Amino acid sequence: MIRPPHDAGRDHPPMRIDIVIFDGFDELDAIAPYEVLRTAEQLGAPLHAELVGAHGAGTVTASHGTRIVVDRGPAEDADLLLVPGGGWFHGAGVRDEIERGVLPRTLAAARDAGAIVGSVCTGAMLLAAAGLVEGRPATTHHSAFEDLRTAGARVVEARFVDDGDLVTAGGVTSGLDLALHIVERVAGASIAAQVSDEIEYERAAVS
C-alpha cells in the first residue's frame, strides 16, 4: 500500500518510484507524472522518482520522437513501478514490449517482491500481460477498455483507480491525476495542492 501521510516521516526512507520507459512510449504518459512527483519532492514530499529504461541504461525513443537517455533499469527495491502506454494500437511500444516479454516479467517480479505497480493509459495492457489485473479494478485509455476487460480486469471508467498495490490511470493526461493522488497519499493534501498550483493544473474530481 502507498504509505498514508502520517507514516511519511523521518523514520521512513523516501518512497522510490521508477517510471519505466521503452521505445514507443507516449511522452506525456511518463513525463507528466515525472514532473508532478519531482515537484512534490522539491516541496518536501518523502518520495523520489526517476525515469529508467525497461532494458537498462541507454537511449529511449518515444512515440513522437523525443529521445531520452536513462542511466539504469528498474531497481529491484523500488517501492513503485509505473509504466506509460503508447503503441498498443499501432504495434510499436506496448505491443512490442509484451511480445518481448522482459518488461511484463519485471513487473510481475516487482509485485511479487511487494512493490506497488501502476500504469498510465495503455500501459495497463503491460500489467495485464504480467498477470496483474485479473479480477482487479483498473482503468486505461477509453479505446482499450474492452481489451483490458478481456484480460480479466474489472474496468472502471475513471481518471485513475487506486486498488492498493495496483494503481492505474486513464488516457494520457490522467497520469497527472494519478501522480497527484500518489503525492497526497504519501505526503498529504497540502503538498498535493501546492504541486497543483505550481503546475497550474486543476485536479479532476474523484467520484
Describe the structure.
There is one protein chain. By secondary structure, this protein is an alpha/beta fold. It has one domain: Rossmann fold, CATH 3.40.50. 34% of the residues lie in helices and 20% in strands. The protein is built from 7 helices and 10 strands. The chain has helices at 27-42, 94-100, 102-112, 124-129, 145-150, 174-187, 189-199, and strands at 15-21, 47-53, 58-61, 67-70, 80-83, 116-120, 137-138, 154-155, 160-162, 166-169. A 6-stranded mixed beta sheet has the order 2-1-5-6-10-9. A two-stranded antiparallel ribbon has the order 3-4. α1 (27-42) packs parallel to α6 (174-187). The protein is globular, with a radius of gyration of 15 Å.
Please specify the SSE layout and strand pairing:
Blueprint lengths: L14 E7 L5 H16 L4 E7 L4 E4 L5 E4 L9 E4 L10 H7 L1 H11 L3 E5 L3 H6 L7 E2 L6 H6 L3 E2 L4 E3 L3 E4 L4 H14 L1 H11 L8
Helix pairs in contact: 1-6, 6-7
Distance between the termini: 21 Å
Beta-strand residue percentage: 15-25%
The CATH homologous superfamily is termed Class I glutamine amidotransferase (GATase) domain
Percent of residues in helices comes to: 25-40%
| Average pLDDT taken over every residue | 93
Shape: globular
Our Rg estimate from Cα atoms comes to: 15 Å
H-E string: EHEEEEHHEHEHEEEHH
Quantity of strands, as a count: 10
Helix tally equals: 7
Reading off the top of the CATH hierarchy, the class is best stated as Alpha Beta
Number of domains: 1
Walk across the major sheet and give the strand order.
2-1-5-6-10-9
CATH-defined fold name? Rossmann fold
- Main sheet? 6 strands, mixed
Q: What structural category arises from helix and sheet content? A: alpha/beta
- Low confidence ranges: 4-9
CATH architecture: 3-Layer(aba) Sandwich
